[in-house]
Amino acid sequence: MSNLADLATPFPPSYIKTKPGGRGGDYVEHAVITQRLLEVLGPYTFVVERVICDDPVTVLARLSVEVDGTAVEIVEVGKSENQSDPHKSAASDALKRCAMRLGCGLHLWAQDHYYLDKSLAKRGDV
Predict the structure, then answer these.
(1) pLDDT digits (tens, 9 = 90+) for 68-125
(2) Which of 27, 10, 9 is nearest to 18 (CA)?
(3) Which domains does the chain have, with CATH numbers?
(4) What b-and-e string marks burial along 21-59, b requiring 16 or more CB atoms within 10 Å of the CB?
(5) Which whole number is the average pLDDT over 15-31?
């Protein structure tokens, strides 16, 4: 199986949570995303490049990985949803958004329009 196909595999329902109070959709916790990245890709580099805004705290971050033998860099923003530790929350959000750009957790954003895992299977990447 390719790294891309492994990353694109949807998380089991037991890992998926719903944000309280109807503020958005489903999500997978930061620790689960981190485990998937490490399991599939091994070590990676994640750097918060800068703080863009302080209210709410918004950061620009870079994820550098190797996917199926190709070096890949993803740059994304992350926004804090946690007032008790806003910089950590924003960095966590940025990491999850970077991972999504690699297919990890993408099914949560795409919802009923998710097809990447099936498309990769047809292509023979699994």
Answers:
(1) 999 999 999 999 988 899 999 999 999 999 999 999 999 999 999 999 999 999 987 6
(2) 27
(3) 3-115 (3.30.390.80)
(4) eeeeeebbebebbbebbeebbeebebeeeeeeeeeebbb
(5) 85
